[in-house]
Amino acid sequence: MVYTRKDVSTLTSAERRRFVTAMLEVKRRGEYDEFVRRHIDYYVSDGDGGLRTAHMAPSFLPWHRCFLLDLEQALQRVDPGVSVPYWDWTRDRTRTSAPWTKDLLGGDGRSSDRQVMTGPFAYAQGKWRIKEGVTDGDFLMREFGRPRKPIQLPTRAELKAALEDPVYDTAPYDSTTTRGFRNRLEGWGHGTGNATWENHNRVHRWVGGHMLGGASVNDPAFWLHHAFVDLQWTRWQRKHKGARYLPERPPGSRDSQYRRIVARHEKMPPWGVTPASMEDHSHIYRYA
Amino acid sequence: MAGGLALTRRGVMRGLLVSVVGMALAPVVAASRPSGRRHPRDLSFDEVYRGRHIFGTKSGSDGRAAFTGGAWQVTVDGRPLHLMRRADGSYLSMVDHYESYPTPLEAARAAVDELGPAEQLRAMDGGADGGRGTGTRRNGTEGGGHHHGVHP
């Protein structure tokens, strides 16, 4: 049965309540923190050695697609009618718009310690204690827009620039790649200042607090953000008919990326599925 | 896939080290910034920044150091700050994962900028959790029951 992922701003109050309830139950069961750990474990940077799957790599998109599906399955074990909504940050751009309402993710952190004080994920509600953090706080933290040095969410034009690139990814398939849809969307740039992080990366920065660090999955906003990123892959495919995940073949043994990235028909850890097999999700879910 | 070759994140963290291959390419920003005691030769730093003691040194004790040029060990108030290296030579910290900085010192300062007044780094790879994520995540066994993919 194909299910639908919806724009979070269109959810009914019942849908909001069910999503929140399922998230809190996945957390209560102890399953949620395993997602936090897995994301930490798979963050391999391209200046260090080893296989990169989740970030700074062409499999950024299929890896997070699988990751979302795993979370969604955990949610659906609680409530089969729940799916992960997406947050369109090109449209819902204020600190009080969806998904930052009291019946969904709650709002910004307070200024003294960035602690989220509203909504179901506020520490005082007793159901969302941070266990796998980079720092010792056990409450969820956010700092919208980085008040110390204000930044804005990526714009529709910035996202469009990524979508218009007709090539999925280009050598060296890492964070220094300047062309290709994947890194324009993932958002690794060059030099210093705001231009060095775009689209996906910039949203992590804008939310701030936990979303900025290695343990970003602690903020349920992670999933709504990545559902929207996942939607962009679908939109890109629609826009560039016939365009495929790249590289098609693994880099050779003399290539700097030898055994460091996943080619289209190679198995991607930890799921053992190939990027090619993750290109079409239409028989699992669709976007509304 | 070459899963067995991959380093796990925590495996890297265990040593709290970051390779400095290509260190010569990194801008020598640290040397030009006002700070406390420093050792210009290896760009180590030891300063108080916004009330936090940040310390970074290039370790030579690692056996690979002779080949890689050493590795960095960075602490904030005595607690290890894990750094990662980007292919362009810049540094990411565990606290600030979606932006990189030219030097370990700048990455450490940026991490401090993100810490709340009473917030301390957590010793993420210490004792109780020490056995976790030691490579088993990469051998294909984890997620063996997760073949949702295109075959839900």
Core attributes:
heterodimer, A: 288 residues, mainly alpha, di-copper center containing domain from catechol oxidase, two-stranded parallel ribbon, 7 helices, 2% strand, B: 152 residues, alpha+beta, protein ne1242 fold, six-stranded antiparallel sheet, two-stranded antiparallel ribbon, 3 helices, 8 strands, globular, disordered N terminus, disordered C terminus, Tyrosinase/Hemocyanin (chain A), Di-copper_centre_dom_sf (chain A), metal ion binding (chain A)
Topology at a glance:
The complex is a heterodimer of chains A (288) and B (152).
Chain A: E1 3-5, H1 13-28, H2 32-41, H3 60-78, H4 156-163, H5 181-186, H6 199-207, H7 221-239, E2 285-287
Chain B: H1 9-15, E1 18-19, E2 37-39, E3 44-49, E4 52-59, H2 65-68, E5 71-76, E6 79-80, E7 83-85, E8 91-93, H3 104-114
Antiparallel strand pairs in B: 1-5, 2-3, 3-4, 4-5, 5-6, 7-8
Describe this structure in words.
Chain B: One of its GO terms (biological process) is melanin biosynthetic process. Chain B: One of its GO terms (molecular function) is copper ion binding. Chain B: Pfam families: MelC1 (PF06236). Chain B: This is Tyrosinase co-factor. The complex is a heterodimer of chains A (288) and B (152). The model of chain A has no long low-confidence stretch (mean pLDDT 96). In chain A, helix 1 (13-28) packs across helix 3 and helix 3 crosses helix 7. Chain A is built from 7 helices and 2 strands. A two-stranded parallel ribbon of chain A has the order 1-2. Chain A is mainly alpha-helical. Chain A has helices at residues 13-28, 32-41, 60-78, 156-163, 181-186, 199-207, 221-239; strands at 3-5, 285-287. Chain B has one domain (7-115): protein ne1242 domain like (protein ne1242 fold), CATH 3.30.1880.10. Chain B has helices at 9-15, 65-68, 104-114; strands spanning 18-19, 37-39, 44-49, 52-59, 71-76, 79-80, 83-85, 91-93. Chain B is globular and about 35 Å long. Chain B starts with 8 loop residues before the first helix and ends in a 38-residue tail after the last helix. Chains A and B meet through helix 2, helix 3 and helix 6 of A and helix 1 and strand 1 of B.
